């Protein structure tokens, strides 16, 4: 029955619907997996950061981590929005032409998805700057041998926070690329 439905659709609608479905799922799964990994690493960093260490020198505290967590939260929103692309693809394949979304509606959905991922990327980049600054401060304090304090060392968990932030940036980048590809698909129709 799907083949019969495909032949009743205009070729441009069929192509756009297929791209929305394909890139929506790719973006959804990539963002979801990267967001879960980043969430787990950040939660681990928070849990291990508060266990009897000097929190003033810990990357797991402060504004950088808050911005990184906000960036991860927005990735979940981007994944949800990518899932909406797959639902939009399903509506585009409707037999009833009146039930199909208008091109304006599809463009508005893509613009919203792009804004979500750009805001998330901005938050994550600001978090990356703050985290990197904190790590630089820790490494510079290590050079001061007279006042050496073991809690001022750069710890492996600090590098994991950087990796989690990088995963979050990658997730937002994937969402942006998928959305831009879909915008290109619609504009070529």
UniProtKB/TrEMBL annotation:
Record key words, sorted: Membrane, Transmembrane, Transmembrane helix
Transmembrane portions of the chain: 23-47, 59-83, 114-137, 157-183
Record InterPro entries: DUF3611 (IPR022051)
Domain of life, per lineage: Bacteria
Pfam families for the chain: DUF3611 (PF12263)
Keyword Amino-acid biosynthesis among record annotations: no
Transmembrane recorded as keyword: yes
Protein name per its UniProtKB record: DUF3611 domain-containing protein
């Amino acid at each position: 029955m799907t083949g019969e439905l495909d032949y009743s659709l205009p070729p441009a609608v069929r192509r756009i619907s297929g791209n929305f479905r394909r890139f929506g799922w790719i973006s959804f799964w990539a963002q979801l997996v990267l967001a879960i990994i980043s969430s787990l690493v950040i939660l681990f960093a928070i849990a291990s950061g508060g266990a009897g260490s000097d929190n003033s020198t810990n990357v797991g505290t402060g504004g950088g981590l808050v911005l990184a967590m906000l960036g991860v939260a927005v990735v979940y929103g981007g994944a949800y929005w990518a899932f909406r692309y797959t639902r939009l693809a399903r509506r585009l394949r409707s037999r009833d032409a009146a039930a199909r979304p208008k091109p304006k509606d599809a463009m508005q959905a893509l613009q919203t998805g792009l804004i979500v991922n750009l805001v998330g990327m901005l938050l994550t980049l600001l978090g990356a700057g703050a985290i990197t600054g904190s790590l630089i401060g820790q490494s510079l304090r290590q050079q001061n041998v007279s006042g050496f304090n073991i809690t001022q060392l750069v710890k492996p968990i600090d590098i994991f926070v950087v990796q989690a932030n990088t995963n979050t940036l990658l997730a937002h980048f994937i969402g942006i690329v998928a959305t831009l590809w879909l915008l290109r698909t619609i504009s070529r129709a």
